[in-house]
Amino acid sequence: MSASVAWQSLAGIGLMVVIAYGSRVLGLLVMSYVPLGARVRRFIDAMSSSVLIAVITPMVVHGDGGTKLAALAAGGVAIAWRNPLLAIALGMASAAVWRWWWS
Question: 64's torsion region: left (phi>0), alpha (psi -120 to 50) or beta?
Fold first, then answer.
């Protein structure tokens, strides 16, 4: 790898660090001036779920059978028993069993 490519890579990584850290700091600064009423709290609470769904949905749609089975099992357990630890464990176990037997 040439020195130019190495410096460009380091500059890109540094820029990503600055942008990621800056967005978090600016978010905290902006939110320090926003009054946290009931409506804002509901919005913030819903953001974490919507981000999680946006990250997981493409993996489930384009994933193999193990991914789909894991999502179905984890979702079913989360809805039925409202136990996230059990849902994660069952999702992981079902994906492992699927991949053990059918891959």
Answer: beta
Rounded to an integer, what distance in angstroms lies between the CA atom of residue 8 and that of residue 66? 39
CB atoms within 10 A of CB 77: 20
Start-to-end C-alpha separation, the chain: 38
Domain boundaries, the chain: 1-34, 45-103
Reading the chain (103 residues) residue by residue, the pLDDT tens digits are 688 888 999 999 999 999 999 999 998 899 889 888 999 889 888 888 899 899 999 999 999 999 999 999 999 999 999 999 999 999 999 999 999 999 7
Cβ–Cβ under 8 Å, residues 77 and 45: no
Assessment of whether the complete model's pTM goes beyond 0.85:
no
Those residues with Cβ within 8 angstroms of residue 69's Cβ, 6 or more apart along the chain or in another chain = 94, 95, 98
